[in-house]
Write a structure and sequence with these properties.
The chain has 283 residues and is an alpha/beta fold. Helices cover 29% and strands 27% of the residues. The chain has two domains: 168 residues, P-loop containing nucleotide triphosphate hydrolases (Rossmann fold, 3-Layer(aba) Sandwich); 50 residues, no CATH class. Strand 1 and strand 2 form a beta hairpin. Keywords: Antibiotic resistance, ATP-binding, Membrane, Nucleotide-binding, Transmembrane, Transmembrane helix, Transport.
Length: 283
């Protein structure tokens, strides 16, 4: 197996404001990742953990402050154009226009990747077929259901047939049936030879879908491994990862850091499912 993503010490801080009022957020604090070719790799963590920032660095949308990365065999810092050509990226917010049809969007994206008109049309038709969208292909995107629109987003992200695709929360907002369909689509991409790196808030999604998972909190990877291994090893009371979009802050813990020994697995009032994982240092 070849590494598809390899990062060492990847870092990113954001500075807002000026002078004495300036604040710095260390969004990603030295992340090491090893993702093998052909894997579905899940990147899990609560709100504000650093998932999107990491994803945006890996897809060249923002520049790291430090560290190294090789993406699909290309040096991220030295050859961003080649990285972009080799990867697909499906953002959280989606990328379709309300008034365009799925077919128009797909043809346009294929053209932007340098394909001829005829080839772009062929690719669009094949993608519509593969994502079971042919029936709706010529209707404006505003008329699609959430699940259909998400399928169009993914078809757009891979129209240039990349070896590696990044999916930012691909199932957020979908109902359980549409989520299950989306999982099937993602597995099908992997079975076709693509490597998938996805972010998610949902532990059940990571468990059902991913070959391996890394959990990030407060800008650092706190644990990684296969879902089976993590489930076997999760015994600690040290870090609580909030699911369903909530950042967990147990009321008894004023520091809300994983060094705080008072953290215990609980079910908070917001109804989130929480889980506990040990930090790297205690594994
Ligand atoms: N442009 C920005 N300027 C300042 N701070 C930012 C910026 N983007 C992100 N941050 C901060 O960086 C940290 C990490 O944010 P990021 O969006 O990477 O987290 P996330 O894990 O993707 O969260 P979510 O699950 O809510 O999407 C957060 O504290 C966030 O407020």
């Amino acid at each position: 197996m070849r590494p598809m993503i390899l990062t060492r010490g990847l870092r990113k801080s954001y500075r807002s404001g000026r002078g004495r009022k300036a604040t710095v957020v260390e969004a990603v604090r030295g992340v090491d990742l090893d993702v093998e070719e052909g894997e579905i790799f899940g990147f899990l963590g609560p709100n504000g953990a650093g998932k999107t920032t990491t994803l945006q660095m890996l897809t060249t949308l923002i520049e790291p402050d430090g560290g190294e990365a090789t993406i699909a065999g290309v040096d991220l810092l030295r050859n961003q154009a080649e990285v972009r050509a080799r990867v697909g990226y499906v953002a959280q917010g989606g990328s379709t226009w309300d008034d365009s049809t799925a077919r128009e969007e797909l043809v346009l994206h294929a053209r932007m990747h340098g394909l001829s008109k005829a080839e772009a049309r062929r690719r669009a038709a094949a993608a519509l077929e593969a994502f079971q969208l042919t029936e709706y292909a010529d209707r404006p995107c505003r008329t699609y259901s959430g699940g259909q629109r998400r399928r169009v987003d993914i078809a757009l992200g891979i129209i240039h047939r990349p070896r590696l695709v990044f999916l930012d929360e691909p199932t957020t907002g979908l109902d359980p049936q549409s989520r299950a369909h989306m999982w099937d689509e993602i597995r099908r991409l992997r079975d076709g030879g693509m490597t998938i790196f996805l972010t998610t808030h949902y532990l059940d999604e990571a468990d059902a879908l991913c070959d391996r998972i890394a959990i990030i909190d407060n800008g650092e990877i706190v644990t990684e491994g296969s879902p089976e291994r993590l489930k076997r090893e999760i015994t600690g009371d040290v870090l609580v990862v909030g699911l369903n979009g909530a950042t967990p802050r147990p009321p008894s813990c004023s520091t809300a850091r994983r060094t705080c020994a008072s953290w215990r697995p609980t079910r908070p009032a917001c109804g989130c499912t929480w889980t506990t994982v040990p930090p790297r240092s205690r594994r």
